[in-house]
């Protein structure tokens, strides 16, 4: 079989194990039928953290799907040609690193992985590579070599490329038959290493899953998204780049590296918003080609009875914890980080509580978020559950609440639960969603899929959200998704809905019923209540649009937006958002069935197979042909 792309190398920090969003993207793309039919050989390359016993144990965990064939750190050698063994050992000796080579399962297929542990690398090689990067791209490593993360990815680039050559994966291939895909800035040093060692012999792609400088500017100022995106919109009108508006940003190493992604043969962006943020970097980015490659979602066909069972389990859990069976179950599955803006959920929930009371309905909001991704020990959870009713009650002095969890619970959740009459919020700050992880109050047959399938409403009102896979996935099961107006998925939902209107699956009223959004998405679509039809399963909360007469006239005016102004916008927008949600919450089986119909249709148009066939593969093929 002749493949369109004989070799694809994915350079990513999640090569060995799924950790976050990029891991979800890799799972989606690399498991699709179309990808595996068109790409001949795939290998993922990235770091291995030999000094971290938790990370090393994860590699050998059967649930991770990794089969190690060669690892000097693990003392494993299995089914590797003697010549390849010797070549890998030479790389380890020359660069003073440890290598792991093996395969990792993605869905029903396996792909190769190559990991490097650079705990004590040969500094001569690292310094020569840093000099090359400065000489050719202007990245001044001496400004950033105090940063562990920067040093790590600069240290692993050369040995990773040397390891690829040791494996002989590109033997006999022409330059247009092999491509390196750098996932985010962390993968770019590997692309630079290829350009250093074999100029013009590899095609390279920068896959932008976010724009690090934009995230920093959004998160580090109290004006958050309200300030940043108003400044971006005004700057676009005047053709001003980010550094002119916000000041020179080169002290931030991620900014310095991402600006050099322009040297890749192609740039992919996961949303209209990310594409516009890249253009905001200015210089060559302002007018270069940037391919939109939206993230996909896993489209599942589930029996209605299974969905009802999931809802029943969630209701049973609430009854055990709080003493009532809720009419509606709301959820938010997220990392416990500033960007997820969990306080906005509480703002909206406060207005929803009054609307629920007026109709005699009740609800619970399960927030599944933790600052401890590895999770607490089950014995700890059981002790807290017995002592003070975890997860309804929490303490901040015993390892229960840590980091952002404490502020969120004590400042937002606890006051809400004291004042709300018809709804409550439960913070489950534990990795996993099962009785063995979350205590005896949880139904014995509960699984993580229940919190996705049994939800009536999934929150996701982030201040920075390049796409938002988690926010949109429950829609296919009949949930409503409430996202902020800067969420990257909006453009893809718009595109999918337009396609369904053309096919006659949705009516124009179901899809779009706009109520005149007050500003525009960076990509051109409407912000605010873009989907205001009472049956559409997406509610967009606009925290960027300012009231008429208060909108900034210039980027300088936008920079004056502070936390107080953002807070006032949140106060008014959250009330409007709650009203839209309440109007769309299903009051009958027929309405719930209609939400499932629309959500399932959208999911079918937003699947990973669709993304890979319509944008990801065409983008790679174009790069390899040019």
Automatic annotation (TrEMBL):
UniProt xrefs under Gene3D superfamilies: Glycogen Phosphorylase B
Keyword terms of this UniProt record: Glycosyltransferase, Transferase
GO biological process: glycogen biosynthetic process
Cellular component terms per the entry's GO annotation: cytoplasm
Coiled-coil portions: none
InterPro entries assigned to the protein according to its UniProt record, in alphabetical order: Glycogen_synth
Superkingdom of the organism of origin: Bacteria
An MF annotation (GO) of this entry: alpha-1,4-glucan glucosyltransferase (UDP-glucose donor) activity
Name of the protein in question: Glycosyltransferase
The species this protein was found in: Caldilineaceae bacterium SB0664_bin_27
């Amino acid at each position: 079989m002749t493949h369109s792309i004989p070799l694809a190398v994915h350079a990513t920090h999640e090569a060995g194990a799924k950790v976050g969003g990029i891991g979800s993207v890799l799972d989606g793309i690399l498991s699709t039928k179309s990808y595996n039919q068109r790409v001949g050989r795939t290998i993922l390359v990235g770091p291995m953290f030999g000094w971290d016993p938790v990370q090393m144990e994860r590699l050998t965990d059967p649930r991770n799907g990794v089969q190690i064939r060669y690892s000097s750190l693990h003392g494993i050698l299995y089914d590797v040609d003697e010549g390849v063994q010797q070549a890998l050992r030479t790389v380890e000796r020359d660069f003073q690193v440890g290598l792991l080579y093996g395969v990792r399962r993605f869905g029903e297929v396996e792909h190769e992985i190559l990991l490097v542990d650079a705990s004590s690398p040969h500094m001569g090689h690292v310094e020569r590579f840093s000099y090359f990067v400065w000489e050719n791209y202007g990245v001044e490593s001496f400004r950033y070599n105090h940063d562990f993360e920067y040093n790590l990815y600069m240290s692993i680039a050369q040995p990773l490329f040397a390891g690829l050559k040791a494996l002989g994966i590109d033997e006999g291939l022409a330059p247009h038959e092999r491509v390196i895909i750098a996932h985010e800035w962390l993968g770019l040093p590997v692309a630079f290493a290829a350009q250093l060692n074999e100029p013009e012999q590899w095609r390279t792609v920068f896959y932008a899953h976010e724009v690090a400088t934009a995230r920093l500017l959004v998160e580090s100022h109290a004006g958050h998204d309200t300030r940043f995106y108003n400044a971006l919109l005004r700057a676009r009108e005047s053709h001003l780049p980010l550094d002119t508006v916000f000041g020179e940003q080169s002290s931030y190493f991620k900014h310095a590296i991402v600006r050099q992604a322009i040297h890749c043969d192609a740039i992919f962006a996961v949303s209209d918003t990310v594409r516009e943020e890249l253009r905001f970097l200015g210089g060559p980015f302002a007018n270069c080609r940037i391919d939109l490659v939206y993230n996909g979602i896993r489209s599942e066909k589930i029996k209605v009875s299974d969905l009802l069972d999931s809802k029943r389990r969630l209701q049973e859990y609430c009854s055990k914890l709080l003493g009532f069976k809720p009419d509606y179950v709301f959820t938010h599955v997220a990392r416990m980080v500033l960007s997820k803006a969990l306080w906005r959920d509480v703002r909206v929930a406060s207005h929803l509580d009054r609307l629920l009371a007026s109709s005699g309905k009740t609800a619970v909001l399960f927030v599944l978020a933790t600052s401890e991704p590895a999770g607490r020990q089950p014995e700890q959870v059981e002790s807290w559950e017995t002592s003070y009713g975890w997860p309804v009650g929490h303490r901040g002095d015993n390892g229960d609440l840590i980091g952002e969890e404490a502020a969120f619970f004590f400042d937002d959740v606890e006051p809400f639960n004291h004042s709300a009459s018809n709804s409550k919020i439960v913070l489950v700050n534990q990795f996993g969603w099962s009785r063995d992880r979350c205590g005896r109050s949880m139904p014995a047959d509960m699984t993580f899929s229940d919190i996705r399938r049994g939800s009536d409403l999934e929150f996701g009102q982030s201040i920075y959200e390049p796409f938002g896979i988690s926010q949109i996935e429950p829609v296919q099961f009949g949930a409503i998704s409430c996202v902020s107006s800067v969420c990257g998925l909006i453009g893809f939902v718009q595109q999918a809905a337009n396609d369904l209107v053309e096919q006659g699956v949705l009516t124009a009223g179901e899809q779009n019923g706009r109520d005149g959004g007050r500003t525009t998405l960076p990509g051109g679509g409407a912000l605010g209540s873009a989907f205001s039809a009472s049956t559409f399963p997406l509610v967009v909360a606009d925290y960027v649009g300012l009231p008429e007469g208060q909108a900034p006239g210039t980027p300088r005016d936008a920079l004056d937006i502070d936390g107080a102004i953002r807070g006032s916008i949140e106060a008014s927008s959250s009330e409007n958002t709650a009203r839209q949600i309440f109007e769309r919450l299903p009051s009958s089986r027929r309405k719930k069935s209609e939400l499932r119909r629309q959500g399932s249709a959208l999911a079918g148009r937003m699947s990973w197979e669709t993304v890979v066939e319509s944008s990801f593969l065409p983008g790679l093929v174009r790069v390899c042909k040019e």
